[in-house]
Amino acid sequence: MNPSIDYSFGPWPWPIEDAAVRFVMEGMIADGSWGRYHGPHCDALRNALAEYHAVEHVHLCSSGTSAVELALRASNVCRGDEVILAAYDYKANFANVLALEARPVLVDTLVGRPVLDPDRLMSALTPSTRAIICSHLHGCMAPIKEIAEFANEHNLTLIEDACQVPGARIDGRRAGSIGHVGVLSFGGSKLLTAGRGGAVLTHDAQLAQRIRLYTQRGNDAYPLSEMQAAVLLPQIQMLDQRNERRQQSVELLLRHMSPKAEIDVIRDGHSNAEATYYKLAFLMADKDPRARDRFLQHMRGFAIPLDNGFPGLHMIHAKTRFRAVGDLPNATAMHNQLLTLHHPVLLGCEDDIRRIANLLSADRFPGIIHSN
Fold first, then answer.
1. Are residues 98 and 131 in the same domain?
2. For residue 189, is it within any domain?
3. pTM for this one?
4. What is the pLDDT of residues 221-256, one digit of tens each?
5. Which of 278, 293, 308, 361 could form a disulfide with 258 if both were Cys (CB 3.0 to 4.6 A apart)?
6. How far apart are CA 193 and CA 164, in angstroms?
């Protein structure tokens, strides 16, 4: 380690101090709208999300997980149906399929990237297939155009999970607006946060109507509160600016990492995509997960918010609960080798980014990485 470099970091708080959010909250206290069933804020948020994503219908709900459930229900997924998703994905997406008594069908990811491989879809297709869940993860945009073409050709509903990438674009379109139905999350760690909450986006009036019929039971069964909606509105106005700052930090990190580092940043493979970063993904060169564990332990000694990626769905669930298409080697590599850096770091100062790059250049720490 270079003794001339200061390796003291953080903390990197999230949510950050935001004068616009404070102003909104003070206004809610003054007018009492924070405690109402129906007020101006949810309607304003629906309109803002619809305009931002250029979609016709927005349904607000209690979480990103509930948004995926509602998207599945709108797709008429039910007992005995099959839903295709990548074997490397968020666990709740898998659980939502099971909750509807349908069967998850796991396909492999692209080589070296944590997103669904469209070339695996035909092998997964059966007469029972009803939908595809496609997630954009860790700053990597899934090849949604090819997946959408497959879904349309085979009359399947494409559910686009954009919970990690609000504001991202693919071919000029916002993530979440390309599939038949898109989902967003406003969880406490997300780029748009209200502590909890989510939204379902769609151009399809029939899908939107199915969601309304399921959720409205004399009251909204999956509500987002007026208070949550109010604090999200100023964050949407700042989203593009903050995403640009995170992108600049990623580029700076790449410039300052050693080419001999034992970890590589996983970059988006789309030439016409503008990714956003809730998590920045890295891949360990060493395939032994014990090497990753040692590296993470070392980084946490410097308070760097680096963590494992998701566990592979095929690695943590009984084989009776899903159908796998092939051996899933790429998803297994994600399970064993992927690391993620949490986004608040990317809003930090340039000096922090340079020092983190120095730390992540693992060749400078002999004996830390390699397996025995």
1. yes
2. yes
3. 0.94
4. 999 999 999 999 999 999 999 999 999 999 999 999
5. 361
6. 11
